[in-house]
Amino acid sequence: MPLPRDSAGPVQPPSGHTTSTADRGSFCLAVCVCGWKGPARRSRDLARKDATRHTAG
């Protein structure tokens, strides 16, 4: 007897981009759920701007 199928279908990765910042020692970088990582910056503000440019592009 076959197993019942999940009516929701396969799990899809999130659409769009969700960014955040991560600290690595004295540096900060922007990261995204899609796997993108921005350059390491000493300024959190610049890392946030990198993330904004990523989501706008």
How would you sum up this structure, described in words?
The protein has 57 residues and is of the alpha+beta class. Helix content is 23%, strand content 21%. It is built from one helix and two strands. It has a two-stranded antiparallel ribbon with strand order 1-2. It is globular. The model has no long low-confidence stretch (mean pLDDT 82).
In terms of quaternary structure, what is this? single chain
Look at the structure and give the mean pLDDT. 82
How many strand segments?
2
Estimated helix fraction = 10-25%
The backbone outline, from C-alpha atoms, is: globular
Helix-strand pattern: EEH
Strand content: 15-25%
Distance between the termini: 49 Å
Please tally the helical runs, counting DSSP H or I stretches of 4 or more residues.
1
Biggest beta-sheet profile = 2 strands, antiparallel
Strand order of the largest sheet: 1-2
Could you tell me the radius of gyration in angstroms? 17 Å
Which structural class do the helices and strands define?
Answer: alpha+beta
Poorly predicted regions: none
